[in-house]
Amino acid sequence: MPIEIQHLSHEEYCYLTTTGRRSGKPHTIEIWFALKGSTLYLLSGGRDKADWVKNIRQQPTVQVKLGSLTYIGQARILSSGPEDELARQIVFAKYIPRSTDDLTEWSRDSLAVAIDLLNEVQ
Q1: Residue numbers of the domain that contains 113
Q2: By three-state DSSP, how is residue 64 classified?
Q3: Domain-embedded: residue 70
Q4: Is residue 61 within 8 Å of 54, Cβ to Cβ?
Q5: What is residue 7's three-state secondary structure?
Q6: Which of 9, 12, 45, 60 matches a 20 to 30 Å C-alpha distance to 95?
Q7: Per the domain annotation, does 1 fall within a domain?
Q8: Which residues, 6+ apart, have CB-to-CB distance to 68 below 8 Å?
Q9: In a domain, 54, yes or no
Q10: Pairing of β 39-44 and β 14-19
């Protein structure tokens, strides 16, 4: 049964914790996100060069903190296709009204990542 998290979609940021590919230690970043159902979408402006993306490639199990709640999830790097387009559209739509920057190039050129949220950490 999918978890219900849509009420957290208004949060400004999420906190993504990956496992360091070399150290094996938790590494947490603050990052923009958008939600669709129980899937969280992120865009990496650094594409494959971002440490968090490199960590996900090695260990796709992650933790995501939204507000005061923390979830376990499975991350997936998206390739061209409908889900990739959805990720770009909904992250862009969420943040364009909040940004003084033109996010068009960022939303087009970033690497899209999906995280399927599996369950809440108690």
Answers
A1: 6-120
A2: strand
A3: yes
A4: no
A5: helix
A6: 60
A7: no
A8: none
A9: yes
A10: unpaired
Other Cβ atoms within 10 Å of 70 Cβ, number: 14
C-alpha–C-alpha distance, residues 97 and 31, integer Å: 17
Tokens standing for residue 21: 């590919």
Cβ of 65: how many Cβ atoms within 10 Å? 18
The whole-chain average pLDDT of the chain stands at 90
Distance separating alpha carbons of residues 52 and 88, to the nearest angstrom:
18
Query: Is beta strand 39-44 parallel, antiparallel or unpaired with respect to 34-36?
Result: antiparallel
For residues 9-48, one letter each, b for 16 or more C-beta atoms within 10 angstroms of the residue's C-beta and e for the rest, the string is eeeeebbbebbeeeeeeeeeeebbbbbeebbbbbbbeeee
The Cα–Cα gap between 108 and 75 comes to 20
Count: domains in the chain: 1
pLDDT in tens, 85-105: 999 999 999 987 666 667 777
Distance separating alpha carbons of residues 25 and 8, to the nearest angstrom: 27
pLDDT in tens, 10-27: 899 999 999 999 999 999
CA torsion, points 114, 16, 21, 74, in degrees to nearest 10? -40
